[in-house]
Amino acid sequence: MATTTATDLKNHLGAYLDAALTEPVFVQKSGRDIAVLLSRQQYAYLQAVEDALWALRAQLAEQSGYLGADTTQQVLHEMLHEDNPC
């Protein structure tokens, strides 16, 4: 893992963009990590992992009794078109 300061990043952006192709680059300001520079490929991978996690959580929620998106839309539609509104 590479680490740099915000000022050094500003002054040597090209070099850190190249470094981010192979490893994350942590950016510090006032001695604290404030950001991470990632390659586009690594970012896409993390987004895919997050999408898979949310899909799994939705699937587990449906299995435990929560309504799915289609069923929820159907129930709401029926409620909106009832003759006896609450």
Task: Report on this structure.
The protein has 86 residues and is an alpha+beta fold. The chain has two domains: 2-38, YefM-like fold, CATH 3.40.1620.10; 42-80. Helix content is 58%, strand content 17%. It contains four helices and three strands. The chain has helices at 6-11, 13-20, 40-63, 69-80; strands spanning 2-5, 25-29, 32-37. Strands 1-2-3 form a three-stranded mixed beta sheet. A hairpin with a 2-residue loop joins strand 2 (25-29) and strand 3. The longest helix is centred in the middle third of the chain and has 24 residues, at 40-63. The chain is elongated, with a radius of gyration of 23 Å. It starts with a strand and ends in a 6-residue tail after the last helix. 2% of the residues are buried.
Taken as a percent bin, the fraction of beta residues is 15-25%
Tell me the domain tally. 2
What class would the helix/strand composition place it in?
alpha+beta
Largest sheet: 3 strands, mixed
Report helical residue fraction.
Answer: 55-70%
What letter string, H or E per element, gives the SSE order? EHHEEHH
Oligomer: single chain
Query: Rg from C-alpha positions?
Result: 23 Å
Task: Please write out the topology.
Elements: E1 2-5, H1 6-11, H2 13-20, E2 25-29, E3 32-37, H3 40-63, H4 69-80
Parallel strand pairs: 1-2
Antiparallel strand pairs: 2-3
Task: Considering the chains and any ligands shown, give keywords for the structure.
86 residues; alpha+beta; 3 strands; YefM-like fold
